[in-house]
Amino acid sequence: MTTTNEYTASTKTGRLANFVDTRVGASTIVKEFGRKVFPDHWSFMFGEVALYTFVLLLLSGTFLTFFFDPSMTHITYEGSYVPLKGIGMSAAMASTLDISFDVRGGMFMRQVHHWSALLFVASLSVHMLRVFFTGAFRRPRELNWVVGGVLLIMGLAAGFTGYSLPDDLLSGNGLRIIDGVMKALPVVGTYLSMFFFGGEFPGVHVIPRLYSLHIMIVPAVIILLLVVHLFMVVTHKHTQYPGPGRTNDNVVGFPVGPVYAAKAGGFFFIVFGIVAFISGIFQINPIWNYGPYDPSPVSAGTQPDWYIGFVDGALRLMPGVLGDFSFVWNIPFPWGDNSLVLSVLLPALVPAGALFAVMFAWPWIERWVTKDNREHHLLDRPRNAPFRTAMGAAGVVFYCVMWAAASSDLIATHFHVALNDVTYWLRVLFFVGPLVAFWLTRRICLSLQRKDREIVLHGREAGIIQMSPEGGFSEKHEEVDVYKRYVLTNFNDNQYIPAQPDAAGHISRKEKRRAKISKFFFEDRVAPVTPSELEAAKAAHGHHEVEGEKQDSIEK
């Protein structure tokens, strides 16, 4: 692949013109950054939203550090919020209340920080989903996909460490769950908990330690990952959607300077304005309603922020026993028995671990199954990769069921149903939901592909009814233009690849497994329209569609 960047201006009629070829060598990539070209598509903005909300997090967080006291020293609150006056609490909780009620603009900055955190993880998640569904993770961007996954994990870590800092009842219960997960580990669990909390839960050092993680270590890692991510984007070029004039060897879009930079700058202020509006209008995390943390009560109707809620939901779905089978195992050691509490460890670690493991490994799984080692700079339409899209939908449903389970008590109270019934149904959906989502999404994608074939071969419905001389009625179809036809027909047609023998003529077990998975991936497929099929359809006036097996493609 060359390092050619192409700036293409598109006229109102859709014609492509004015290709400007700028060759940029790898050694001059920083010097020539202003001449780099980026494609223009609305779905690419989610990555920008993540970047801009992270900038807002840094700015608002810097303001908050001037007033927040990360100490668990017990004091008596004497601030402006009258309902809590005279109540004992930690200095962290008291300083958070002071920020909210006594510092000018403090409440607004707290809410900007919290809403920015929610939008940062949300936009990062949607950006990752866009990359997955369009196949932007394929070679040479596999490592960048891994960097994005680690960024997502760091975003979760930043959210959790910041969410726990006020030391209110809600965040304290979240830390209590972490304490339970640690203590569920045999032998080392108690020692880990004592070290993390600075003594028996809730300890005296957990807030200062979380504060150090939240304002120094986690942001530093996120900034490093962002730099690596953006460097890889510049080095590998930005992906683009297929279309006339767009190939694996060019980029059609706008140069960074001055066009893209100006648009990006304006978009930052739009994001900032929206976050400021939400923060000024909609209340979030009212810690004064929860009160200071006390280990004795557990409040009902509470759940963590949405991006951490799936872990809480998995814990709620896990039963303690199944019939006579207990998930608590007592393991004998020379010094006595230690308990392995699988009813806590399994839901806390396995679902999230499985989700991220499949996500990280997927680029190499897909490459292995398809035997496709080519570089890909053109994106797929999700419908043209039915198996991948179906797997993504199954993963989303898997996550959302756990997310919903974190609010099982609120679902029960708001809809006036039994909590046990809600739990039972969510347990069924935990296993059945991803399977149904996979099957349904795959069938929808295949149906959309067949619809695309019909549009290419027969044209689109014009909404005009014609009457034949014999008195019959039919709808008029209009042939799609060459640009639309290009998008509908120019895509990778992945097929089932049988097991291939090696140089010695033997077929290994690994290759047989790959062939079985390939068959599962691509046995159901719809081939793109070929030139011969298009000519046959034109000759027959679009009345005979044949699903051919020839793999030649329609050129623009």
UniProtKB/TrEMBL annotation:
It comes from Glutamicibacter protophormiae. Residues 16-242 form the Cytochrome b/b6 N-terminal region profile domain. Its EC number is 7.1.1.8. InterPro entries: Cyt_b/b6_N (IPR005797), Cytb/b6-like_sf (IPR027387), Di-haem_cyt_TM (IPR016174). The chain crosses the membrane at residues 49-68, 80-101, 113-133, 145-165, 177-198, 210-234, 264-285, 306-329, 341-365, 385-404, 424-441. Residues 535-556 are annotated as: Disordered. This is Cytochrome bc1 complex cytochrome b subunit. Signal peptide: none annotated.
